[in-house]
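Dear colleagues,

I hope this message finds you well. In preparation for our joint manuscript, I am sending the N-acetylmuramoyl-L-alanine amidase (Actinacidiphila cocklensis) sequence together with its predicted structure, so that both groups work from identical material. I would be grateful if you could confirm receipt.
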Amino acid sequence: MERPNSAAASRRSLLRGGLGLGAAATTGLAAGLWPAGAAQAATAPVAPQAAAVDYPSAAWAPASTANYTASNRPSSYPVELVVIHVTQETFADTISLFQNPAHAAASHYVVRSADGAIDQCVREHDIAWHAGNWDYNTRSIGIEHEGWVDQPAYFTTALYHASAALTAEICDKYGIPKDRNHIIGHSQVPGTDHTDPGPNWDWVRYIRLVNGV
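The corresponding structure tokens are as follows:
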């Protein structure tokens, strides 16, 4: 996700609609991303989550409760998509941003470049604010990948394999087809001008790995 050039306050306002960290979205995109009353409900205090992960290989690194909406998926909303992101930040800085209540965004998982280590920041039953589109947020799991869209060296073998194993497990759990119609890039979400994961992301390789090929 590209970093915006706008002021931090405008960025936080925009991200509250669910945009992940770093993209240059315009303020006009914020309108209509939330259903009536959802923004107020999303910022209401919620009970702390149990320090347990949904994916056994992940470490628990909880995002601030101000950066996602508590829910009860898949009872409240079906989980039908996996959205692939690139952080435009280091792994450590991404976790710090998600833990900052002023950031107003978080994904469910973050994958580290060097070794494929995975942190879970939001429980899968909750709605992470990562896609910039409320409908897509409610129906998806968001996975951030450490790196920059114009620096393919960050897309290591360790990152691809760890992320693909995570996505495969999510797809198996929720009955999501393991194809490009259901495993999408942030750039494919309606209403966003994000370009991640960008042209250097190897989709053919990734989908093959998700399918165990």
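For the figure legend, we might mention the following. The chain is about 25% helix and 15% strand. The chain has one domain: 8-23+51-210.

With kind regards,
E.M.
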